Please model this.
Amino acid sequence: MFGFVKQLGGTVTIQSEVGKGSTFTIYVPASRGGELSQAERLGGDKLSLGRILIVEDDDIVAELAAGMLDELGFEASIVHSAKEALDRLSSGDKPHLIFSDIIMPGGISGLELARKVRDRFPELPILLTTGYSEQVGGTHGFPILQKPYEFDSLTEAVQKLLKPDFTLQ
Model:
């Protein structure tokens, strides 16, 4: 979490009082000061390069990832469990890519989600992410992005999975 906050130019403060507990306050900038998204730089108007479904149970991490993907020009939507992602796919809402945390609540891990998606939609790219180094091994051929990731790392991972449809200039 701290890595994401620092990437955005933010900070974290901690206040602790014996016997009462601790308070963590996260400060992040409201915007990047008028920077244009990749889509705006390429075409002038905001456009969507495609839709990415983010499967992440941590609201802050999900919003940060969505912000990065938005800056790249993607339309990102967020669900908080693998079950929600599978329900979305079953209803016919099929994104261009699924970006899922491996450790997920609800009894279905991100890796299990990836396997189910691969069985049902073999052409749908899946990018996994985790903050736990022991989870990196054994992903059965699914690409993985280690947390905390930076904008450039996410860009490269998405570009590899969506090429030739997605190119940065």
Observations:
- The radius of gyration is 17 Å.
- Confidence is low (pLDDT under 50) at residues 36-47.
